[in-house]
Specification:
CATH topology of the largest domain: Chaperone, DNAj Protein, Chain A
Strand content: 25-35%
CATH class of the largest domain: Mainly Beta
Number of strands: 15
Number of helices: 12
Low-confidence stretches: 76-84, 102-122
Distance between the termini: 81 Å
Largest sheet: 4 strands, mixed
Order of helices and strands: HHHHHHHHEHEEEEEEEEEEHEEEEHH
Strand order of the largest sheet: 10-11-15-14
CATH architecture of the largest domain: Ribbon
Mean pLDDT: 83
Structural class: alpha+beta
Helix content: 25-40%
CATH superfamily of the largest domain: Heat shock protein DnaJ, cysteine-rich domain
Amino acid sequence: MKDYYAILEISKDATTEEIKKAYRKKALQYHPDRNPNNPDAEKKFKEVSEAYEALSDANKRRTYDQYGAEGVNQMGGGFPGGAGGFSSMEEALRTFMGAFGGSNGSIFDSLFGGGGFESAAAEGQKGASKKISLNISFAEAIRGADKEILLTNYETCSSCSGSGAASAKDIQACSSCQGSGQVFQSRGFFSMSSTCPHCHGHGNIITRPCAKCHGEGRTKEKKRVKIHIPSGIDNGMQLKMSGYGDAGFGGGGAGDLFVFIEVAPHETFKREGDDVYLDLPITFTEAALGCKKDIPTPHGDSCRIAILEGTQSHKVLRVKDKGFPNIHGHGHGDLLIRVLVETPVKLSIKQKDLLRSFGELETDSNHPRKASFFDTIRSFFH
């Protein structure tokens, strides 16, 4: 007894979609057009088509699961040629066409490389896209900027308007494909199409080329392009400028220009998302007694912040909406100021004496974190 599930390499509880997917894979593998003069491949192709014919139909599948291939063959409308499979390759190919849901030509156009050329010839070929890297400063990223660059692109020939011919009368329909851009060959039951080798799919022949572009329809030109950098753009982002790539062929549209942004790092500010971090060094005295500071912002202005009495090192203070604008228009990030308390160095004798006197007056309440730390350590060892 033939095991249709094994032939398609699927489980017995496979879904309809899984059956079709498995069949398509096997049918393409063993198709006679991919395996000419190969009787083993032809036999395999018939087997997988027979298996699909049974398992893709719910009624036939139930009968097969209960009675096997003989049971399916005895149903009304069973396999052509009996349980031994399809009576001819034509019957197997009909199953193949049904599974792929199209006519002979359209199926093979998409599966085996034919077709598609007529529409390409009719619509023209799009030009190549280009990419460049553009360096901007930290300030330009936060404020936005307008830049101008020099590009060397293929542009539509100004002499022939992209036709490639010296004049309109110098363009004639290709005699090999009668202007379609395709030639056809009959293979078995199907009509196969391929690109015309004489006109290369364009459908016409240029008898006298344009003197400026030598028949290409394009010339290399330099041009200046203005690029708008939106505020809030980040390092690694890209801008797409449609139509700023190379000109196309045969009336096809121009390619696109992709601009990759590289933002130079700032000496003081560091960006994280839309927020900006700033490290602010303050003295021991300022941290202990508190103070007010005028802080520069990445926007070029300044803001005043209060350092509270007893502020500890690495405390982060937030200034709302002084970070980067969100590039999608969702507000602004914040400016985050990280306080760094500096230990004084190069002390004079008098300064040292004053600090010693101050130290003698300190109590554990002046350093609560230090006291709790040593209490924790002592309790660990006892």
